[in-house]
Amino acid sequence: MAELVLRSARVVTPGGTRAASVTVADGVITAVLPYDAPVPDGARLQDLGDDVLLPGLVDTHVHVNDPGRTEWEGFWSATRAAAAGGITTLIDMPLNSLPPTTTVDHLHTKRRVASGQAHIDVGFWGGALPGNVKDLRPLHEAGVFGFKAFLSPSGVDEFPPLDEEQLARSLAEIAAFDGLLIVHAEDPHRLAAAPRQGGPKYADFLASRPRDAEDTAVAHLVARAGQLGARVHVLHLSSCDALPLIAAARAEGVRVTAETCPHYLTLTAEEVPDGACEFKCCPPIREAANQDLLWQALGDGTIDCVVTDHSPCTADLKTGDFATAWGGISGLQLSLPAVWTEARGRGYGLEDVVRWMSTRTAGLAGLDARKGAVAPGRDADFAVLAPDAAFTVDPAALQHRNHVTAYAGRTLYGVVKSTWLRGERVFHGGEFTEPKGRLLTRSP
Ligand SMILES: [Zn+2]
């Protein structure tokens, strides 16, 4: 018995964009019917007119930082920003909160803090640290979606990187239960060998995080994954030179996927003003020519998906010196319009954006039975978008706890009119309902 019908002239479905009526019961999509299908008795019709109905985005790379660094962000503010940006599911990274999500006890702490604060659905990645191999299987069984590891320093002392031997040991354990390892791939030796000069010049910072640090780390990772038959995912890929490595490994049967981020796709090194540390992230935003190749790789499928890597901090940690400023860009509320603006200019459609930011990210997390498409049986999670409406980014209008943004003053296309979670409108016209998000666990 349908309770709700969402009708739009443009619904993005796995079979293409078309006029349709989407019926919902118990928070789940029951059918995608022709546009003028009769509204079932007792169902409420929501006519979206010319606005586009998309599946809610699934952002698998978010640093919520709660508890412990809640002044940087928190579940309340992060999930409101996400809802305002058309995101209906996020998966929280295991680091920058205190404690990090590296034991089952710590996972329980995180879940306790998140519960009642989540405006959208929230899941958790676990962390793979030197010395916590014994915790990986219990975390997997407790429902984390996979494990994050660093190969170079993470930026916080409580989350140290894995060396080669520790990586092999963690990866072997994760492969034993067919889990997923997601990796910040920059090689520490290449980083140590790169020119290092602090200060406000972006060119100096860029030189300190060269492409070959990424390329070397990716090469080691895919080689190790191939040996062990393990499933690995390259986080926030920025170096275009690593793309052939990933494509070749995949062609040889290595189970590797890769993501990139809105800032690598929409901002370029050439335009970063000196001293503008709101643009600092690791790996860094690179040159325009590099960006063109990232887009090409999205187009040909070498890069699977686009996620925010939302990693905020307080404004005082984003001042003047690129060497010491916190590395991270806040993107939750702006990722859809930022990516859409650039995508439409490059000839891509909303179907492509949905594939990169919802369908494939849901698949990465194993959530594809529940999330990531407007299709029967999936949760009735939607973003309603006015794709041709433009707005200028006003930092003060962001729901992020800290209003530091690399997108200030940019004009972007794509206004999120409303966001729906399991058939309930949780964001509309700048207003939010009380938190209705659930805490998700990996499907067994
Ligand atoms: Zn990150």
Please describe the structure with a list of short key phrases separated by commas or semicolons.
444 residues, 23% strand, alpha/beta, 2 domains, TIM Barrel, 18 strands, globular, 6-stranded parallel β-sheet
Distinct small molecules: zinc ion
| Known CATH architecture of the largest domain | Alpha-Beta Barrel
Rounded mean pLDDT is 96
Structural class: alpha/beta
Query: Helix fraction?
Result: 25-40%
Number of structural units classed as domains: 2
**Distinct helical segment count:** 12
Full CATH superfamily name of the largest domain: Metal-dependent hydrolases
Largest sheet: 9 strands, mixed
* Share of residues in strands: 15-25%
Span from first to last CA? 29 Å
CATH fold field value of the largest domain: TIM Barrel
Total count of strands = 18
Q: How much is the radius of gyration in Å?
A: 21 Å
The SSE string, one letter per element, is EEEEEEHEHEEHEHEHHHEHEHHEHHEEEE
Return the CATH class of the largest domain. Answer: Alpha Beta
Q: Tell me, briefly, the overall form.
A: globular
Uncertain runs: none
Organism: Streptomyces edwardsiae
GO molecular function: allantoinase activity
Family: Belongs to the metallo-dependent hydrolases superfamily. Allantoinase family.
Subunit structure: Homotetramer.
Would you give an account of this structure?
Keywords: Hydrolase, Metal-binding, Zinc. Its EC number is 3.5.2.5. Homotetramer. Belongs to the metallo-dependent hydrolases superfamily. Allantoinase family. The chain has 444 residues and is an alpha/beta fold. The protein folds into two domains: 4-53 and 379-432, Urease, subunit C, domain 1 (Roll), CATH 2.30.40; 56-364, Metal-dependent hydrolases (TIM Barrel), CATH 3.20.20. The protein contains twelve helices and 18 strands. The chain has helices at 75-84, 104-114, 133-141, 164-176, 188-193, 202-208, 211-228, 243-251, 262-266, 288-300, 335-345, 350-364; strands at 4-13, 16-25, 28-34, 44-47, 52-55, 57-62, 87-92, 121-124, 126-127, 147-150, 180-184, 231-234, 255-260, 305-306, 382-392, 411-421, 424-428, 431-432. Strands 1, 2, 3, 4, 5, 15, 16, 17 and 18 form a nine-stranded mixed β-sheet that branches. The protein has a six-stranded parallel β-sheet with strand order 9-10-11-12-13-14. It has a three-stranded parallel β-sheet with strand order 6-7-8. Strand 16 and strand 17 (424-428) form a beta hairpin. Helix 11 crosses helix 12 (350-364). 55% of the residues are buried. The model has no long low-confidence stretch (mean pLDDT 96). Zinc ion binds at residues 61, 63, 93, 309, 311.
